[in-house]
Amino acid sequence: MSSGKFFLSLARFPAGWISFDGMVVSGGEVWFGGASFDGARVTFDGAEFRAGRVRFEGAEFNGGEVSFRGARFSGGEVDLSEAVISVPPVFDEGEKPGLKLP
User: Fold this and answer.
1) The domain containing residue 52 runs over which residues?
2) Which residues pair with 90 in a beta bridge?
3) Is the pLDDT of residue 100 over 70?
4) For a tag site, which of 32, 36, 56, 66 has the least CB within 10 Å?
5) How many CA atoms are closer than 13 Å to the CA of 13, on its beta-carbon side?
């Protein structure tokens, strides 16, 4: 995504695997506001955050796993500061720039 807005607000992701692997955010905004990830495995593995924002305002991660393995942060922002997370997200060691955690 290079511009504009992509809304997944109030989306419900039941148990299972939800993959945003390889996603590229180079501008614009992706918003998961109020989304619910109930016991799901949510992966952003290999994603690139070059510019823009990915926001999880009011999203709930209830169990499961949120993974950013292999993700690259070179200017974009991933904002988890207002999400409800029962299990901390997984990152490659030392790789969390541009990330806002609760």
Assistant:
1) 5-93
2) 67
3) no
4) 36
5) 26
